[in-house]
Amino acid sequence: MSSPTVVTEAVTTTIDHAADTKGRKRADKPRRKTSFKLFLLISPFLVLSFLFAYYPLYGWVYSLYDYKPALGLSGSEFVGLQWFRLLVSSPTQVDQILQVLTNTLAISFLGLATSILPLLFAVLLNEVKITRFRNAVQTLTTLPNFISWVLVYMIAFSLFSSTGLVNDILLDSGIITTPVKFLDTDQHVWLSMTLWSIWKGLGWGAIIYLAAISGIDPSLYESAKMDGAGRFQTMRYVTIPQLMPTYLVLLLLSVANLLNNGMEQYYVFQNAFNKEHIQVLDLYVYNIGMTGNSLSMATAIGMLKSLISVALLFSVNAFAKRVRGQSLV
Amino acid sequence: MKLKSTVALTASVILAAGTLASCSSAEDPTPTETSGTGSTTETAAFPTQWEDEITIDVFDGLANYMGMQSGWFAKVVKDKFNMNLNIIAPNVAGGGDTLYNTRVAAGDLGDLIVTDKGERMEELIQGGLLLDMSEYYPAMENVAVFDQAVEKLNDGTGGIYATPTSVSSILPTEPSEGLDPTFGPFIRWDLYKELGYPEISTLEDLLPILKDMQDLEPKAENGQNVYALSLFKDWDGNMMVTGKQPTCFYGFDEIGFVLAKADGSEYQSILDSDSEYIRTMRFYYEANQLGLVDPESTTQNYDTLWSKFQNGQVLFSWWPWLGQSAYNTADHMAEGKGFEIAPLEDMQVFSYGAEAYGGKQVIAIGSQAEDPERIAAFVDWLYSAEGTYMNNSQTMGAAGPEGLTWEVGASGEPELTEFGQAVFLDGDATVPEEWGGGGYIDGTSTLNVSAVLPNDTDTTTGYPFSYKFWPSYQALVETPLSEDWSAEMGGAATTMDYLRDNDKLLVAPGASFVVPTDTSEIETLRNQIKAIVVQYSWQMVFAKDDAQFESLLSELQSTADGLGYQQVLEVDMANAQAQNDARVAIAAEFSE
Fold first, then answer.
1. A45 and A105 fall within a common domain
2. How many domains, in total, are found in chain A?
3. Which of B25, B126, B520 lies at the smallest CB-CB distance from A73?
């Protein structure tokens, strides 16, 4: 926790200092010139963030039109707030959105809750002393991160479909008589989705912790050993506490991404049976906009995400202010 | 505090950006293009030689193949027009209208376009994406034969933007389908025969029979399980596609969420508990309880299902062009095996009457096409006798190129050559090098659109274009299977004959009716409801027990109602009524 705080404080003091001097030497021309030069230095980044973060917001305009691609925006009819009204026009519409939000948040919170796993995995992996074995495990667990979700689904399908490997084995060994429906079921959708993303991301997530572990001062371990700490005790009292700052920063960042749980995974796994519980916000927007061909309506729903994100940002900010006495933004 | 000021600043920046951007974004697809040729003289005829080789993009809403056209059809087009066809198929790409939307937003849908008439065509014309063919129309003599249909299609557009498909000179009150209807309960006749031709008074009576048939043949020749029913989801639209089909055995067809009877005597909301659609759901549900439904139904696609039919793993087909086309090979039929229509006593199979003014799809040229004259010449060729023989889809009975697959025999009748018999009776054959080589089936036209109906008559031979109608062909295909079926069905020669003679056919006059464009709100509601209907339908078929089935049904009804089902239904009911009025009018017009 300490190092980021120090940095922030240092930056703040410098800025305050700079502001002071600027006030005093307002008439100083060469000074102005340098600050203009410095401004030019950051301008590419300003342009970039404007182009990629703010300019796309212009797309919100589509939610006010009845957009038809063939006619272009200028040829499409302006409908005002029609889509927003439609969204709240009936309790069922509202229920649909609430269900989608519940799915989104539930899967995200499950993700947050399991975000400690890569840390534990890294700690345990670090204790493996045979380098070759450790490297092999690390490579094998990192690899799934580079497999696209489409291929992951192919694997899932060949293993768990009603004629897949698992069902074949269970049937042949006489444990079951009818194939178990692993994929086309509405049972435990959130859990199974979380498990799949853990499988895919565990090794990759552990990399940063492995790096952090190598940065821990060896003297801490030495003194712990002198005090008679065993393996598990050094893990518990040295390694994990030392990793906590890293973990908390990552946790904070993932809170900001709460609504962004992506859509590829849910897109490939969705079917008529699990749709009710698998539709997260991004997938819902896609299904309405692209599959359902209602691009304007989809834009309106997509805006919802931005609103909720802003609300979340304010609340996390308030929380951080209370806990750390300082706001994030 | 800091956050608030940041937000305020950002907000003002966004506003400013928005204003600026909205000024600059006046990009419109400019429909006022001037075609490069600049020829003011009326083109009397198309040239017969084309200088440079070109490749055109064909955006084809019907195609089931994506990529370059190859094989003998490609060679014919290349020789005639010095042109290659690059087929872009939204059906293959998947993802609904995604491909259409992105291409249309880019201002270039394709050089040659096969799309729906009505809303689609209107918005493409309005958006300036289609070319006005008026300049080339005088040269399009083959299309001109169907001038009336062309006029009707382009009525009110101020030009000639598209040509109709499936045109013919057959009366609109006659079936457009030929020898086999589009729909029908087709079962494995050999197994049905083994059971001693039990009586089937209605749809539900099929269940015990299918069960017995499945028990007779639990494993297919390839060792896989046989299921009486196997479903698929690729084509689900307003409803589960396999759920609609049995309603067609009783004379219904969908128009939005309405099932309309061909003779206009009945309109049903699909979600009414006693509708034909829900009846089908119950039918499948009960079949699943009996173990008759393939558990892979939920995940497989049409291609997988097709190969299951080929392997004899499925015993029931909703369409002749699935069960019969896949399984009734010469070998199987010689053994007496194959799909034939089941004699449901109360069925009234829906049949599409020949469309007086063309079918649902149209052929158009893109406004950005590089050589519109050549494409117009190609379109015109599709309507010629030669084009009709070659381009029509092979499952529709397209005879192929004269001289290769067929010829006019000594008696003046068209008949299949040896090569043709190998292709159409045994499944495929290798095309001679002079015709381009490769497998015949692989080389057929992938456009999958009939410009002229294959059962229309070729005026030069005096017989229909489709080889299936030729007496010489019908003599060839008498097999133990067809003889047995025919004997059981009172001597009927074809499925159509049987249905007609026994009053089990209901023809919906081909009024070329176009469903009016939905308002944007209705369209959005419709799309939301569609998704819910399809989702619940699948769950209902695979429900655990009666209680779950009923609760899913009522959940579906209340969710759909909550999303505005009644509103959409009202529109559909009005459309169904208008469609019927058009059918009545066209029948009257042509009966005079």
1. no
2. 2
3. B25
Contacts of A278 in chain B (CB under 8 A): none
Which tokens hold the place of B154? 């382009």
Please judge whether B528 and A66 are an interchain contact, meaning their C-beta atoms are less than 8 angstroms apart.
no
CB B181 within 8 A of CB B175: yes
Whether A288 is in a domain gets the answer: yes
Question: A297 contacts in B (CB within 8 Å)?
Answer: 524
Task: Give how far B560 is from chain A: nearest CA, Å.
Answer: 8
Which chain B residue shows the shortest CA-CA distance from A54?
B14
Minimum distance, in Å, between the CA of residue B407 and any CA atom of chain A:
46
Considering the domain boundaries, does residue A83 fall inside one?
A: no
Kindly state whether residue A108 falls inside one of the protein's structural domains.
yes
The rounded distance, in Å, linking the Cα atoms of B256 and A40 is 59
- In this structure, the strands spanning B505-510 and B252-255 are unpaired
Average pLDDT of the residues of chain B: 88
Among A91, A184, A314, the residue with its CB nearest the CB of B299 is A184
Cβ–Cβ gap A162/B299 under 8 Å:
yes
Q: How far is A198 from chain B (nearest CA, A)?
A: 25
pLDDT digits (tens, 9 = 90+) for B346-374: 999 999 999 889 988 999 999 999 899 99
Looking at residue B512, its pLDDT comes to: 86
Same domain? A114 vs A241: yes
Measured in angstroms, the CA of A36 and the nearest CA of chain B are apart by 21
This model of the complex carries an ipTM of 0.75
Q: Does B521 sit within 8 Å of A57, measured CB to CB?
A: no
Say whether A329 and B25 touch across the interface (CB within 8 A). Answer: no
How many Cβ pairs within 8 Å bridge chains A and B?
143
Which range in B90-104, B259-273, B402-416, B511-525 is most confidently predicted, on average pLDDT?
B259-273
Cα atoms in the Cβ-side hemisphere of radius 13 Å centred on A189? 22
In a shared domain, residues A29 and A123: no
**How close B161 comes to chain A (CA, Å)?**
15
List the domains of chain B with CATH numbers.
54-167+358-394 (3.40.190.10), 232-271+519-592 (no CATH)
pTM for this entry: 0.80
pLDDT at B44: 67
pLDDT, averaged in runs of 10, over chain A (329 residues): 42 47 58 88 94 90 90 88 89 91 90 91 92 93 93 92 88 86 87 94 93 93 91 91 87 78 89 90 88 86 83 77 68
CA distance linking residue A141 with residue A149, whole number of Å: 16
Contacts of B162 (CB under 8 A, 6+ apart): B117, B121, B130, B153, B154, B362, B363, B364
Same domain, A52 and A94: no
Choose among A74, A163, A178: nearest Cβ to B28. Answer: A74
Q: Residue A267 belongs to what domain range?
A: 89-329
Residue of A nearest to B13 (CA): A54
Residue A84 lies in a domain: no
pLDDT band at B549 (very low <50, low <70, confident <90, very high): very high
Residues A243 and A299 in one domain: yes
List the CATH number of the domain containing A102: 1.10.3720.10
Residue B23 has pLDDT above 80, yes or no: no
Lowest mean pLDDT among B30-44, B82-96, B126-140: B30-44
Give the per-residue SS3 of B323-354.
HHHHHCCHHHHHCCCCEEECCECCCCEEEEEE
Which residue among A56, A78, A101 closes a domain? A56
Q: What is the DSSP track for B395-453?
A: GGT---SBTTTEEE-TTS-EEE-HHHHHHHHHS--BPPGGGT-SBTTTTS-S----SB-
Are B96 and A293 in contact (CB < 8 Å)?
yes
